[in-house]
Amino acid sequence: RIDVVLTAHGLEDFASEYELALVAEIDQISVRVLPLERVIASKTSTNRPKDVAALPALEATVRARDARTSE
After folding, report:
1. Which residues is 26 bridged to in the sheet?
2. Minimal CA–CA distance to 35: which of 25, 46, 47, 21?
3. Which of 12, 31, 41, 68 could form a disulfide with 16, with the two C-beta atoms 3.0–4.6 Å apart?
C-alpha cells in the first residue's frame, strides 16, 4: 500500500522534509519517503483517532529497527 500525502501537519516546509527523505526502490522506480520519525511527528501533530491508533505500531517499528542496528 502506498499513501500519498498532499498536506502534512507538524513537519517543516517541503524542501526541508525532501532533504531528509529516504530513497526507496519500488518496482524499479526510485521514490522518496519520509523517515518513520517524521511520519510519527506528523501523526502526533494531526492527533486524529486513526493516526493516534497507528502510533504504537510505528513507534515499535522504530524501536525494533534501532535495536537491530545497535547490535
Report:
1. 29
2. 21
3. 12
d(CA 18, CA 26): 18
β partners of residue 32: 23
Please state the pTM of the whole predicted model: 0.84
Neighbouring CB atoms inside 10 A of 70's CB total 6
C-alpha cell, 20: 531528509
- Tell me the per-residue pLDDT of 23-43, one tens digit each, with 9 for 90 and over: 999 999 999 999 999 999 999
**DSSP letter (8 states) at residue 9:** T
Q: How far apart, in whole angstroms, are the C-alpha atoms of residue 23 and residue 57?
A: 22
